[in-house]
Amino acid sequence: MKEIKIHNNLSRKKETFVPVKPGKVNYYSCGPTTYDFAHIGNARAFVVGDLIHRVLKSFGYEVTFVRNYTDVDDKIIERARELGKDAIEFAALFVKECETDFGFLGMIPPTHTPKVSETMPEIIKMIEDIIRNKKAYVVEGEVLFDVPSFADYGKLSKKDLDSLQHGIRVEVDKKKRNSADFVLWKPAKPGEPFWDSPWGQGRPGWHIECSAMAKKFLGETLDIHHGGVDLMFPHHENEIAQSEAANNCPFCNNWVHHEFLNFGSEKMSKSLGNVVRIRDFVEKYSGQVLRHLLLSVHYRARLEWTDEVVQRALEEVKRIHEFVVEAETYKATGTADDAEIMGCIEKMKDDLSNDFNSAGALGTFFTFIRHARHNRDSLSQNSVTEILKIVNFVRDSMGFVSSDPEATLLSLRKNEQSLEGSDIDSQWIENLIEERKTAKASKNWARADEIRKELAAKNIVLKDNPDGSSTWKVQS
Ligand SMILES: [Zn+2]
């Protein structure tokens, strides 16, 4: 199996990846809180999580991948209350919407997608274990993690407890023994959803869910944990504290964090109000373009969202899919195998094994496309076969090729037309329909067929009516 190097934020170094069990990977990625439509900042988390999953699989690892849904949360409860809806049902609606977005982004499903509301017994059990190990305490129905009792606190974020204690402004919460302590379980306020627990009716704090879900599906020690760099502290630091305090063994060996998406040179967040929903982007451009844009930059690099970046992604997606459609027509006419073509997959694997460098692999793929096109008239049978294998590798390992290239091209062209504001030239269509009618009347079937094809090439579909007239519509 090919060796993979991963930038591990525990050590802040690129290291050779060694899973706990050879050939198997236990992998967790923090999923969305479902109270609204996901935006393009969320999309970076989704597709980077998917990239890691795909690369490991295409390298032959048996991957168990967990990505959760946070369906119990203050924001959900607040939003649902505003709308007069049940919080869990409200969150479930957005789980569905999220899954639709995942489809747009061409993501493959994780092995497990647990929800907080379905993981309560495991969450409660884990909190009990932490209390038993004397790393948490109970005050008036609230359970708090005792941060100073966990000596390794700060090992991921490299924060030391003293500076944390001083850094945090004086807490209003008098229940906390130390200002860095965080909530594992809190009592429900009237009207809020609650679950029964040994500490009374309440609900879990945010961090504990990931620790409990990871343990439920992946065991006590994970190989890889992924999330946004903004989650490193406190969320991931707290996950480590909870899991290690409960299980008395290392929680995760490799921590992978993707960088921010900067929108107009400012970090994109809901509070800035410059949110673009995945749904809006997909409608305007396509999910394939968004996926491409997000993975054409290394996950550890900041991504500046500009019109140029979007335009480049659009053109590259088009170039790739035009090539894929064209490559299906390639015929062997030469005898010598092409070394550059035959070595392309290995070269892309080198890129991807270097800390999931999808940007590098994409560059390799484009070099290959130029080369294959240039040499298309002298390809050997092996080279023709290899070209299709390369396309499949790019599709499987990174998702840069859609499952239906022709449909992708069609939708890109259609969106391009509407983007340019060059609305369909209906006069031109009407003229052709008229010409076709005349051609049919004089039994010139060849010309009539030609016109139908000419219109189809522009996405215009004709319908011949029983009265001899023809109507048209734009294919969607
Ligand atoms: Zn998490």
Report on this model:
With 476 residues, the chain is an alpha/beta fold. 47% of the residues lie in helices and 14% in strands. It has helices at residues 40-58, 74-82, 87-104, 120-132, 161-167, 206-218, 232-247, 278-284, 287-295, 307-327, 339-342, 344-353, 358-374, 381-398, 405-419, 426-441, 445-457; strands at 5-8, 13-16, 24-29, 62-67, 136-139, 142-145, 182-187, 202-204, 222-228, 252-258, 261-263, 266-267, 303-305, 460-464, 470-474. Helix 6 (206-218) packs across helix 7, helix 9 (287-295) crosses helix 10 and helix 10 packs antiparallel against helix 15. A 4-stranded parallel beta sheet has the order 4-3-9-10, with helices on both faces. Strands 5-6-7-8 form a 4-stranded antiparallel beta sheet. The protein has 3 domains: 5-258, Rossmann fold, CATH 3.40.50; 312-417; 426-474, no CATH class. It binds zinc ion. Zinc ion binds at residues 30, 210, 227, 235, 239.
Percent in helix: 40-55%
Compute the number of strand runs: 15
Please indicate the percent range of residues in DSSP E strands (runs of 2 or more): 5-15%
CATH homologous superfamily of the largest domain - what is it?
HUPs
Structural class: alpha/beta
Mean model confidence by pLDDT: 92
List its salient traits.
476 residues, alpha/beta, Rossmann fold, 4-stranded parallel beta sheet, 4-stranded antiparallel beta sheet, 47% helix, globular, binds zinc ion
